[in-house]
Design a protein that fits this description.
The structure is a single chain. The chain is α/β, with parallel strands linked by helices. It is built from 14 helices and five strands. The chain has a five-stranded mixed β-sheet with strand order 1-5-3-4-2, with helices on both faces. The longest helix is centred in the first third of the chain and has 17 residues.
């Protein structure tokens, strides 16, 4: 990026101070962008507004000479992390999530917010009607139908740390953001956990929940409650730990056992495998079992999420810049 305009150079410099590298900035600028836009005071303000919305930065902190750039984070953000994680490490990812949610909510179907969300046991009963178990696709469809956008965030600046889950309220709508890149299984518990935060009232206009790590053994009261909700929803038992008796299993044996256990107990076999892997700390065996179970699965969880969300959005109502920004985020990788 070669910039000769001093005003634009200052704007780019401010973006870099909060964590955006040159490659990432270029990846999100609209095709028509010209640095000369900032030559006049009005143009500088317009450029600041566009960059602010695109990168989740408060626009007034961009155009004001004396101000330091300030990220525009979800309202009432509450960082949940282990002691060795610096809060600011998650801020850029959270600001980008808020920026992306702004575009999604413009064209997401408007639905009245329900008076209440079903508790874990009732929701499990509802979702299991005519189904063997609750899959990621089932839970995703429920969230979208309830008016909760679920977004997979993957287009991030290089080296920026990300949370595993984020639940917040924007413009009166609850929003869930996931970042899990494992293609099968993992996103189910993450989504159930974030839905738990919303259902249990942890997410309000004044409070958002950021999960650096979704840890099923977290001892924090709020995180433990969301974990119990997720476990009860997916298994019927808020304390469920799946550890088969006898010797340790190999991947093929675990896959076979998981399918049999799934049929009997109405639990997604992928969750069974991951529950076993977590309980026994046998992640290699769990991944081998997932590979066997999913060998004929045509789409990943992330692909299912992206397709389901795009199918609901009135994309023709977006302006060209927002449409391009959305597409870049939903199909992009870290820069």
């Amino acid at each position: 990026m070669t910039v000769t305009n001093p005003q634009m150079k200052r704007l780019y410099s401010k973006l870099k101070t909060v964590g955006y590298n040159t490659k990432y900035i270029n990846s999100l600028l609209p095709d028509w962008w010209d640095d000369e836009i900032a030559e006049t005071p009005a143009g500088l303000q317009q450029a600041s507004l566009i960059l602010g919305q695109t990168f989740g930065v408060r626009a007034e902190t961009l155009w004001a000479d004396s101000a330091e750039a300030e990220l525009n984070l979800p309202q009432g953000i509450r960082f949940k992390h282990r002691e060795n994680v610096i809060v600011d490490d998650l801020s850029v990812a959270c600001a980008i999530a808020r920026s992306l949610a702004r575009v999604v909510l413009k064209v997401f179907p408007t639905k009245p917010r329900p008076d209440f969300y079903p508790d874990a046991s009732e929701l499990r009963r509802l979702l299991l009607v005519d189904k063997k178990w609750i899959t990621f696709q089932d839970l995703l469809a429920h969230c979208l139908d309830m008016g909760i956008p679920v977004i997979h965030l993957q287009h991030l600046p290089k080296k920026v740390k990300k949370m595993e889950g984020l639940a917040f309220e924007q413009n009166g709508h609850p929003v869930i953001v996931l970042t899990q890149n494992h293609p099968y299984g993992y996103a189910l518990f993450d989504l159930a956990h974030e839905l738990g935060h919303i259902t249990l009232g942890h997410v309000t206009a004044e409070q958002a929940m950021v999960d650096k790590k979704i840890d099923s053994e977290a001892d924090d009261e709020i995180e433990s409650a969301a974990n119990r909700f997720a476990m009860e929803l997916l298994t019927g038992d808020p304390e469920c730990k799946i550890v088969p008796r006898g010797r340790n299993l190999n991947g093929d044996e675990l896959a076979t056992a998981a399918i049999l256990y799934a049929e009997k107990n109405h639990i997604d076999p992928l969750h069974i495998v991951l529950n076993y892997g977590h309980s026994k700390k046998h992640w290699g065996v769990a991944h081998a079992a997932i590979k066997k179970i999913c060998k004929d699965t045509p789409t990943t969880d992330q692909e299912s999420l992206r397709a389901a969300l795009l199918n609901l959005l009135a994309l023709d109502e977006l302006n060209e810049d927002d449409y391009t920004l959305l597409q870049t985020h939903l199909k992009g990788n870290a820069d």
